[in-house]
Amino acid sequence: MANFLNVPEDSLLQHDAATLAEKIHAGEITAEAVTQACLDRIAEIDGELNAFLHVNAEAALETARQVDADIAAGKEPASPLAGVPVALKDVFVTKDAPTTCASKMLENYVPQYDATVTRKLREAGIPILGKTNLDEFAMGSSTENSAFGPTLNPWDTERIPGGSGGGSAAALAAYEAPLAIGTDTGGSIRQPAALTATVGVKPTYGTVSRYGMVACASSLDQGGPCGRTVLDAAMLHNIMVGQDDKDSTSLDVELEDMAAAARDGLENGLKGVRVGVVKEFTEAEGLQDGVNEAFQNALTLLEEQGAEIVDITCPSFPYALAAYYLIMPSEVSSNLARFDAMRYGLRVGDDGTHSADDVMGLSRAAGFGKEVKRRIIIGTYALSAGYYDAYYTQAQRVRSLIVDDLKAAFEKADVLVSPTTPQTAFKLGEKVDDPVAMYLFDLYTLPVNMAGNCGMSVPAGLASDTKLPVGLQIVAPSLQDARLYKVGAAFEKARGPLK
Q1: Mean pLDDT for each consecutive 10-residue tract of the chain (499 residues)?
Q2: Are 347 and 205 in contact, with CB atoms under 8 Å apart?
Q3: 438, 140 Cβ separation under 8 angstroms
Q4: Pairing state of beta strands 128-132 and 86-89?
C-alpha cells in the first residue's frame, strides 16, 4: 500500500504553501518543479486514493511556467500564492476541464466558461492541478456517493475521508496538493478537514462568489479554502473573497486581511479573547470519548494562549438537523430540476420511440444516484401543496431561531468552539444503508450554514481510542472571518505536531 501520510524529507511537497510561495518568489525553486512534484505524486498514489476525478497536467504546468517567466523577468508575482498549485473541487466550472459534480448526469461535460473562483485562481497565478472527487452534487458526508467511486482516507484507507469534499481534503493530507478548494453546504469543507487532519474554512455566506459553482442548496452553499496550515488557508481565502455582480447574493463588503490575522495569532496569542463552549454540542448524544478528550485538551491549550473560556447555550441547536434536512432538500429539488436531459448532460431513451417526458424520466433515473434522488423526493414533498407550511415554513422559523441564538452567543463570546464531528472517521460502507446516521455526522457544523456565519476546522489532535484525527471547530460572527484565523493559528501553534 502507498504511504499517503509522508513524503521524503528532500521533497518539495513537505513544505506548506506559504513556504513554497516564498521560495518560488525568491527564485530558490521554480513553480514548474513544485507543480511537477504534485503531478508525480498524484500519478504515484491516486490510482488507489481516488482523490482526483480529472488531472489537467499541461494546463497546470503552463500556468507554473508563466509564473516562473514573470519572476525571471523581474515582475511582481500576481499574488502571494502565485506558483503554488491547488486542487479544485469538481463543482466549480472550468472551461478547460470536465465539471461532473461526481455524477453520471454530467459525465464528460466541459463548460463554456469559468466560475468566478476558478477565474480568481487563474488571475492569481495558481496552477490548477485538476478536479477533486466528492459526494454526487455535494450531497453526502463520506464521498461514498460519488458516481466514480469513493475516495479513501489517507490516515486509514478502510475509512471515509468525510464529505462531501473528501477528495480535496484527502489530496491535501496525502501531499498531492499544498492547497485545495471546497464547498460547504452543511459542513462539506469542515467535516472532511476534521477527519483528515487538515484545515478547512467555511467563509461568511456571500463573501465568496457562487457564480459558476454548481448549486446544491443556494441559501446554504459557500466555497472556501483548504490547506495543511491555518496560514495557508488564510492566504487562499484572501484570494477567493470579493463582491461579484454575477452573484446576486454576493456582499459588497471589505473583510480584514486573513493572513494578517493568522500571523497575529501566531505572534501574540489570544489574550483577551472570549471563547464560548456550546453546551448543546458538548452534551449531545453520540459524542465519542476520544473526540471529547481531544476537545477538552484543546480548551486547555486555548486557555494557555490567554483565552477566557465561557459557557454558552443555544437552545435551538438541537432542532438544526431536522430543519436543515427540510430546507436543503427543498432547494435541491428546485436546483436540480434543470438537469432534465433537454439542454445538456446525460440523455437516455432518445431513440425516436419515447416522448420528451419519458426521456426526462429515463435520464434522471439513470443519471442521479440514490442519495440525490432521496433528497429530491424529500424536497419535492416538503414544498408540495398542503405540506409547505407544515414543513418548509416551520423549518425556516427554526432557522431564524438559530440566527437569534448565535447573535446572543456572540454578545458573550468572540468565537464559539466545539468538536467538528461527534466521532472520528467511520469505515467505508458502515453507514451507507443508514442515511439518518450519516446525517448525524454533520450535527455540529449545520447551524453555521443555517445562519450564514463563518466556521473553521483545525486539527485538534488524535483520538486516544482510535488514533484518528479530531477537528476543533471555531465559529465567528458573520463578516468576522479574520477571527477564525487568529484563534486557529494560535491554537495550531500551541498544539504543535499531531501525536
Answers
A1: 87 97 98 98 98 98 98 97 98 97 96 98 98 98 98 98 98 98 98 98 98 97 98 98 98 97 98 97 92 98 98 96 97 94 86 88 93 96 92 96 98 98 97 91 96 98 97 98 98 92
A2: no
A3: yes
A4: parallel
Please tell me the pTM assigned to this model: 0.97
Residue 192 near residue 163, CB atoms below 8 Å: yes
Whats the size of the chain, residue-wise? 499
Cell of 347: 440523455
Looking at 79, 103, 142, 164, which residue is catalytic?
A: 164
**499 carries an active-site annotation:** no
Of 79, 103, 141, 188, which is the active-site residue? 188
Name the strand (E) or helix (H) holding 240.
helix 230-240
- Whole-angstrom Cα distance, residue 39 to residue 44? 9
Cell of 349: 431513451
What residues are paired with 46 via a beta bridge? none
Place of cell 419515447: 354
Task: Examine the residue annotation and report whether 209 is marked as an active-site residue of this protein.
Answer: no
Give me 442's grid cell: 454533520
